[in-house]
Structures are given as structure tokens and as C-alpha cells.
Amino acid sequence: MSPSLSPGQCPQLCVPCSVSPSLSPGQCPQLCVPISVSRAVSPALCPLLCDVPISVPRAVLGVCAVLSSVSPALCPHLCPQGSVPSSVSPALCPHLCPQGSVPSSVSPSLSPGQCPHPPPVEFADPQPRREFPVGSTVSYSCRLGFSPVPGVSPTISCLQNFTWSSVPRLCQKVQCPSPVIPHGREASPRRASYTFGQQLEFQCEPGFALRGSERVQCLAEGMWRPPVPYCDRVCDPPPKIAGGQHSALGVKQFPYGFEVKYSCAEGLSLIGDESIYCTSQDGDRLAWSGAAPECRLIRCPKPVVERARMTPQTFTFPYGLLLHFSCDEGFRLHGAAQSQCLADGTWGPPLPTCQPVLCPEPRVLYGRLRNPLGGERWYQSNETVTFECLPGYQLPDNARMPLGDAGTATCLPDGSWTPLPKCVKEDDADVCQEVHYIKSTFECGVPVEELKSLLEIQKLFLEIKKLQAELEN
Question: Where are the disulfide bridges (predicted)?
Fold first, then answer.
């Protein structure tokens, strides 16, 4: 209070001594702190006193508010809180100032009967207001990451004694659900609960790989972000091979479907499957799809096939080389047309051979081979045979030459014969000869008028032959 005030001069209005902008350094320049005194203290004894004993209207409390710079030695007569100095009469001071305030003469703009600013509440903020008259209420809202305690009202009221109603615990930290990761665990010791802002790191058991982010954080919404990961089974590291390597060098985890390719050092051949895969036979456990291949020095002998052509043309024959074979003209391939160098250094299928093309013994109706060797035989390419007709048959001369009694045929490279001769009856020979002549005439390009005359002559010739045949019968 002002130094000119005596304990009996209690003001009707009070303001917080720490916030009034009109205070001069001599009035209440510092914050007030409550102490208890045993009697009414005059300004002369305690000149820095900034308030009279604080109490409810009935003055049941005996707490004085004094400047923080006042030493208790200046006011040695202290009395326990809850009592009042005996010399102070409630009748003289019916409206004692609340704790931490000064007489209203310092700031007359405030109205009487207000509560001080709402008390602080852990993890909560009050709604912003300037005045707090008796009967008014203030609501608190929880800060980010905190939620209201169930069943507790977030509102307090200004009571008739210018104090606030009791403030319970209003807010608690938001909790996230306890993460459960089969075949995994937290990198740090497991907690009983997980609240807003906490971060977790996860690890998987041997034989499993983490899918997702290894670190998550509890958000204000009560969920983990990024989402909690999971542990997936993985294959063991792929086997190593002597003389070669695989494509997964430096890889630490091998999930389902992972492919590993093998290769050999220069000069060595890869025996087996080039790739293996991480797979599952029972849908649960993971394993590699097969055994790892081997690297070995494999060379097949140079293939020698007489009368054959080989592709590709090469002088080295390592493991896996595939060759294609074809025969020269007049020869036919016996066996597989291609062969591959196998892991045991042999060719498979076995190398083919080129055999001469043979023609079967030709047969002519009403004819026979001249000088047959006897028995059924085969004839080689370009070999020629001669035929003769049986008695009463002749070989017609296609060139209108005198009829002969012999003809030839030649074995071709594809195993067939040149056109075989035909044997006809001797009486039909002249007719056949005329037919062949007419055919050759057509092929020679004779003028149409001349051809017409020739055809008429041929017609007459045939009619005469027909008449002769009828007379003989």
C-alpha cells in the first residue's frame, strides 16, 4: 500500500501491483510477495509494505503482501497463515485486498470485486479475457499433444471472495497405441505407455527384414507416423562359388522374389542355372530356388563331320556352345541337326553324319533294267541306269526319230530319278509318235493357219488308223 496509509485505512479497490502501468517507482516498483505478520504494521516500521493483511471479507487469513525486497528482519513479528493481527478489526477493514495487490488509489480505472488472472494449469491455456468479475467463468483448452482428462470440467469460476474455484488436473498427454511387431522389437527398452512426441526405432529378428520406416513418432492425433513397420521373412545370404561370384555383393537382406545371378571368371564355364530366386515351398519359410551353379574348366573336342558344314565357324568349343550342321549336295544328314557342348566335355546329342543320297531301284511298266546286278539295290547320286522294254513294247521317240528299244534315268542329289521312260505297245508306237510330234509343233510356235492344216492331216491319219484296227478285229 502507499506509505501514507495506516493499517486501518483499507481501500475499497485493489489492483495487481505487478501489472499497473501507472505505478511510480516510489509506490510499488517491485513484485509483492506474501509474508505473515503478528500485528498491524505501520508504514514507519515497514515502509516498503505494499498491502495490508490479505483475507476474505471476514478476514480469516492473516497474510500480508510486501515488496520482495523487504527482509523478514524488518517485520520480525510473523504469525501463522490463517490468523490475523489482533489489532486489526474486520469492521475497520471489511474489504481487504487480495494477495499480490495494491490500493486502488494507484489505478482507479478498475472496478471493485474482480478475481485476479486465472491460475496457470499444466498443459492448458485459459481463454483470453481482461476482466474477471465475480460469477464469471474461464474455460481452459489443452495444448497440442494433450487431451482433456475424462470427466473433468475445463471451466473455473470467480467466487464471491475474489478467488477462483479449485482447478483440477485438466489435461493429459495424448497416448499412442503400443506397437506390436511380430518377429521384431523396439531398439530401446519397451515402455508402459507411449505419449505425444515420443519416437521409437525398431529391429527385426535374424531371418527377417524390416518393411517400412525404422523410426516412427507419436502424433497429436494419437497415431504413429510413418505407419508402424512390419518384419518380413528373408532368405539367408546366397551361397558363394569357387571361381565365380554372384550379383548380390554388398546386399544385406534378400526378400521374397529376390534374384541372384552368378558368373564365372574368364576361361571358366558356368555349370547349372545362372540365376536362383528367394522363394517359398510351403508359403511360410523362405529358401533359394535351387543349388548354386559351379565354375569349371570345360572344353569339348573339335567336332569332325565329313561332307558337312558347321555354324558358327569357330575354333574354340567351350561348355554350352551350340553348333548347327548341314550336309553338302548329294548327302543327307543322319542324326540331330544341332549339338551342344555338355558339362562332361562331350557333344549332345551325338554328332550327326552325312550319308550319300541314294535312289531306290526304279521300276518301269512293261520294262526292265538292262544288265541288272541282281537283288534290290540303291543307287548313288548321278548314277545312271538303262531300261529296255519287254517283247511287244517299245520306247516312243519324243524327237520323231525311229523307235528304239532302250531308255535311261539318272539318280538326282535329292534321292529322286530323272523322268523314267515308258514302254508302249508296238502298234501304238506310231500313234504316240504322232501325238508327241503334235505336241512339239505346238511348242515350236508354228503359225495358226499352218497349224490348222497340220491338225487336219493328223486327224485324217488317226481316222485311218482307227479304221484299220476295226477291220483287223
Answer: 115-158, 204-231, 235-278, 327-354
Handedness of CA 186, 191, 194, 195 (dihedral sign): negative
pTM: 0.41
Please count the structural domains in the chain. 6
Which helix (H) or strand (E) segment holds residue 341: the answer is strand 338-341
Query: What are the phi and psi torsion angles at 327 (to 5°)?
Result: -100, 160
Residue tagged 551325338 (cell numbers): 350
Calpha distance 358→363 (Å, rounded): 15
For 237-270, how does the pLDDT look when each residue is reduced to its tens digit (9 = 90+)? 999 999 999 999 999 889 999 999 999 998 889 9
Q: What are phi and psi of 462, to 5 degrees?
A: -70, -35
Block residue for cell numbers 509494505: 49
The neighbour count for residue 157, using CB atoms within 10 Å, is 15
Helix (H, G, I), strand (E, B) or coil at 34: strand
Q: pLDDT tens across 63-86, in order?
A: 444 433 444 444 433 333 333 343
For residue 320, give the CATH number of its domain. 2.10.70.10
CA-wise closest residue to 303 among 357, 334, 271, 345: 345
Concatenated DSSP letters of 294-317: EEE--BPPPP--TTEEEES--S--
Residue 307 to residue 329: CA distance in whole angstroms: 9
Picking from 42, 30, 33, 34, the residue whose alpha carbon sits closest to that of residue 4 is 42
Q: 86 and 11 in one domain?
A: yes
